[in-house]
Amino acid sequence: MEHHDLEPTDAQQLLQQDPEIRLLDVRTQPEHQSHRLPGATLVPVQELAQRLGELDPQQRWFVYCEHGVRSVVACQILTSNGFSDVTNIRGGMAHWAGSGLDYEQGAT
User: Fold this and answer.
1) Which one of the listed residues 45, 63, 65, 93 is annotated catalytic?
2) Residue/partner pairs of 80-84 with CB below 8 Å, 24 or more apart
3) Average pLDDT over residues 39-46
4) Beta 61-64 vs 22-25: how paired, if at all?
Protein backbone atom coordinates (compact mmCIF):
# COMPACT_ATOMS: atom_id res chain seq x y z
CA MET A 1 0.00 0.00 0.00
CA GLU A 2 1.30 3.43 -0.88
CA HIS A 3 0.51 6.94 0.23
CA HIS A 4 -0.54 9.83 -1.98
CA ASP A 5 1.04 13.28 -2.26
CA LEU A 6 -0.93 16.52 -2.45
CA GLU A 7 0.03 20.14 -2.94
CA PRO A 8 -0.93 22.31 0.07
CA THR A 9 -3.63 24.18 -1.88
CA ASP A 10 -5.29 20.88 -2.88
CA ALA A 11 -4.97 19.55 0.67
CA GLN A 12 -6.59 22.68 2.10
CA GLN A 13 -9.49 22.38 -0.31
CA LEU A 14 -10.11 18.75 0.64
CA LEU A 15 -9.82 19.58 4.36
CA GLN A 16 -12.52 22.23 3.95
CA GLN A 17 -14.79 19.79 2.09
CA ASP A 18 -14.34 16.81 4.44
CA PRO A 19 -14.25 17.45 8.20
CA GLU A 20 -13.50 13.75 8.78
CA ILE A 21 -9.93 14.06 7.46
CA ARG A 22 -7.39 13.98 10.28
CA LEU A 23 -4.13 15.94 10.29
CA LEU A 24 -0.95 14.37 11.66
CA ASP A 25 2.01 16.63 12.48
CA VAL A 26 5.17 14.50 12.70
CA ARG A 27 7.52 17.35 13.69
CA THR A 28 8.96 18.05 17.13
CA GLN A 29 7.05 19.64 20.01
CA PRO A 30 8.90 23.01 19.64
CA GLU A 31 8.11 23.10 15.90
CA HIS A 32 4.45 22.32 16.60
CA GLN A 33 4.28 25.01 19.30
CA SER A 34 5.76 27.54 16.89
CA HIS A 35 3.32 26.99 14.00
CA ARG A 36 0.88 24.27 12.95
CA LEU A 37 -2.23 23.42 11.02
CA PRO A 38 -5.41 23.81 13.10
CA GLY A 39 -6.57 20.62 14.77
CA ALA A 40 -3.45 18.61 13.98
CA THR A 41 -2.43 15.68 16.18
CA LEU A 42 1.25 15.81 17.14
CA VAL A 43 3.20 12.55 17.05
CA PRO A 44 6.89 13.14 16.26
CA VAL A 45 8.08 10.77 13.53
CA GLN A 46 10.65 9.16 15.85
CA GLU A 47 7.80 8.15 18.22
CA LEU A 48 5.27 7.17 15.54
CA ALA A 49 5.91 3.41 15.39
CA GLN A 50 5.49 3.14 19.19
CA ARG A 51 2.36 5.35 19.26
CA LEU A 52 0.33 3.88 16.37
CA GLY A 53 -2.31 2.73 18.86
CA GLU A 54 -3.26 6.37 19.43
CA LEU A 55 -4.32 6.76 15.80
CA ASP A 56 -7.33 5.24 14.01
CA PRO A 57 -6.20 3.27 10.94
CA GLN A 58 -9.72 3.57 9.48
CA GLN A 59 -9.50 7.37 9.31
CA ARG A 60 -8.24 9.38 6.35
CA TRP A 61 -4.91 10.98 7.36
CA PHE A 62 -3.06 13.98 5.91
CA VAL A 63 0.52 13.97 7.21
CA TYR A 64 2.95 16.88 7.31
CA CYS A 65 6.30 17.98 8.71
CA GLU A 66 8.37 21.11 8.07
CA HIS A 67 9.73 20.43 4.57
CA GLY A 68 8.12 17.14 3.49
CA VAL A 69 10.91 14.67 4.28
CA ARG A 70 9.85 13.30 7.70
CA SER A 71 6.24 13.12 6.56
CA VAL A 72 7.17 10.73 3.72
CA VAL A 73 8.85 8.46 6.31
CA ALA A 74 5.75 8.76 8.52
CA CYS A 75 3.46 7.86 5.60
CA GLN A 76 5.54 4.75 4.96
CA ILE A 77 5.26 3.75 8.64
CA LEU A 78 1.49 4.26 8.58
CA THR A 79 0.84 2.38 5.33
CA SER A 80 3.07 -0.53 6.36
CA ASN A 81 0.98 -0.82 9.55
CA GLY A 82 -2.43 -1.08 7.93
CA PHE A 83 -3.42 2.56 7.47
CA SER A 84 -5.15 2.55 4.10
CA ASP A 85 -5.83 6.24 3.37
CA VAL A 86 -2.66 8.25 3.96
CA THR A 87 -1.68 11.45 2.14
CA ASN A 88 1.56 13.42 2.40
CA ILE A 89 1.24 17.20 2.20
CA ARG A 90 4.05 17.96 -0.24
CA GLY A 91 6.66 20.42 1.04
CA GLY A 92 5.30 20.49 4.60
CA MET A 93 4.64 23.64 6.60
CA ALA A 94 7.23 25.61 4.65
CA HIS A 95 5.38 25.02 1.37
CA TRP A 96 1.98 25.51 3.07
CA ALA A 97 3.01 28.91 4.47
CA GLY A 98 4.79 29.81 1.22
CA SER A 99 1.53 29.15 -0.63
CA GLY A 100 -0.16 31.84 1.47
CA LEU A 101 -2.45 29.41 3.29
CA ASP A 102 -3.65 29.95 6.86
CA TYR A 103 -2.06 28.25 9.87
CA GLU A 104 -1.83 28.78 13.62
CA GLN A 105 1.16 30.34 15.36
CA GLY A 106 2.32 30.48 18.96
CA ALA A 107 1.69 28.23 21.94
CA THR A 108 -1.39 26.03 21.91
Assistant:
1) 65
2) 80/1, 81/49, 81/52, 81/57, 82/57, 83/55, 83/57, 84/1, 84/57, 84/58
3) 97
4) parallel
Asked if pLDDT for residue 106 goes beyond 90, the answer is: no
Query: Is 65 labeled as catalytic in the residue annotation?
Result: yes
Q: Please say if the pLDDT value at position 96 is more than 90.
A: yes
Rg (CA), the chain: 12
Q: Nearest to residue 27, comparing CAs of 71, 72, 65?
A: 65
Residue 10 has pLDDT above 90, yes or no: yes
